[in-house]
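Data card: per-record layout.
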Amino acid sequence: MKLGVYSISLPDLTPREAVSAARKLGYGGIEWRVAPRRDDLSHETPSYFGHNRCTLEPTVEAGAMARGLCVDEGIEVLGLSPYIGVGDVTAVEAAMRMAVAAGAPQVRLRAASTGEDSYAALFARTVDFLGAVEQLALRYGVRGVVEVHQRTICPSASLTHRLVSGFDPKAIGVIFDVGNMVIEGYEDHRIGLELLGAHLVHVHLKNVAYERPADGGVWTPRWAPIDDGVLDVPAFLRVLAETGYDGWIATEDFSTLRSPQETLAYNAAYLSDCWPRSPASDGRADE
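The structure for this 287-residue chain is written out next.
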């Protein structure tokens, strides 16, 4: 198993601290959250979506710095995850320059959000955008990867496949986010993985639970520990192994039962135990 961590889930650590902690716990790589510095949040307690200390500035210099940190610790840069709107080709090119400096093979993209227009219009707009991204990806040697994400036009594997199937998988890939699909877009994982085929290049792993209001009504989702939610993680890992997936699995745990560093350690041990063992193994999880 090629286990990595997405830095968004380590908000109280600096990049240097995160790389060191990940390496000591057996993670082989780190995916970097990329966003402009928010000085107005610097007084706040570190959090996943607010004052997140484990975030890179969107600059070539920050990319080179992250690469150096990972080289020093002997782990890989798995990708960059900026926040780029559909149509912002200039931002994509800047992110790809940063990725080259970071030694990152991919840059995360989001499809258009639902509710902004009709599905047909949003789909056409996103296809046009990915066409421009494809050309940049081939020029820079950095893949653009669309994340399966709730409240976008690609919340499921099949809708994501419809979006990316006309593009070169060397240029446009997919992040298969099973936690997001618990909230919206669940389909049989084996079918989804097989359908995406060569476009499947990365996996995000997190879990979700639903809470029932005290007086009944519509249940609401919340982020949950990786072993205590709707997603059957061991079953999903078996399907990954059985379908021949050999890419990275990056934990993106937003739960609050444990501190982020305790969660990092817990998830490494849990996933190692869950990973399917081959008949010829000596009892250890496959590397």
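Known properties of this structure: The longest helix spans residues 119-140. The chain has one domain: 2-274.

See the next section for split statistics.
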